[in-house]
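Issue: copy button drops trailing tokens. Both records pasted manually instead:
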Amino acid sequence: MESSPSTRPRRYSTWLWALRVAVTVAAVAYLFQAVSAGQFLAGDYAFLRLHQLGTTTADLLMVLALVSAAGLKWIARGPRAPFLITLAAMLVSQAQAATGAGRILWLHVPLGVALIGLVWALAWGTWTSAAWREVPR
């Protein structure tokens, strides 16, 4: 089923907004991860449980972001970059979570810093990149 010229921009806009919301909320969730980790490392051990719950929440948000990026790419026929960057962020997130669960802090912390930067850059790109805002022909 071919989309008509009038529905195409609307479909593209819907998927782009879904991606924007998902990655923006995920970026805030990852920032909370840094705060909860800092509180835990400072000796407030109750924050470890919040840090673990934050991981699950951020992962769920990134799954929603990946679905949105896939919809933007394959349903709305948009750019490939948002999907690939979101997928990369999810892979880094999974590696980071695994190193945290394994208590490999020397790798967990730098991966966390890289992940926060990657997700914030992705969120920034969804809001500012002219290439991602243009509806493909």
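Record 2 (pasted manually too):
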Amino acid sequence: MRVRITAGHTAGHAEYVITSGGRRLIAFGDALHSPIQIGHPEWSASVDHDPARSAGHRRRLVAELEEPGTIGFGVHFADVVFGRVRRDGGGPAWHPVDADASPAAGHRP
């Protein structure tokens, strides 16, 4: 597990990256407040104390969340907190992870 300090959001904001078995989970906290920001990383929340830096971080985070074997955890994403970023049409979009689609259930991750 690694902790990454992410500038531009609330003071002291951090993300957690947990890696195991070639897969990883990124718990990104306040970096993204809504799944719509996946496609619009330039949209900041009112609590971002440096909107330009936080937008830059969101762009990098979205690219990282698109990498194979990566799942995101968005605490502010209501009932779709676990997901993957995939390209739909013209840009990236949040796709919730189905708890029944685990490798143990015989589904592809």
